[in-house]
Design a protein that fits this description.
This protein is 63% helix and 0% strand. The protein is mainly α.
Length: 94
């Protein structure tokens, strides 16, 4: 009669033939491959500079938006007339 460990070694095959082993290995392997792909994408193309004068252009945009808000002033005051002081109301036209 053979011992139990000798019988188990006879019945078990190589480790790569078991599906559970590949299930355990595949998770970290996918993460490593995704990390390598991410690094390659990050270093292959530089991020473009959108605008050299972004600060100056943004202040100009804010000025334009303020001017548009001033143009819309009468519409806002008529719509919100209950909360608007009398001096801010547009002049009444006959």
């Amino acid at each position: 009669m053979q011992s139990t460990s000798a019988q188990e070694s006879k019945n078990s095959g190589p480790w790569w033939k078991y599906g559970h082993v590949w299930l355990i290995i595949s998770g970290p392997l996918i993460v490593v491959i995704a990390g390598i792909i991410t690094v390659v994408i990050a270093f292959s193309a530089a991020d473009p500079v959108i605008d050299e004068n972004y600060y100056e252009n943004s202040t100009n945009i804010n000025k334009t938006l303020r001017a548009q808000q001033k143009n819309m002033g009468p519409a806002h005051t008529v719509r919100n007339h209950a909360a608007t002081p009398d001096e801010d109301l547009p002049p009444l036209r006959p």
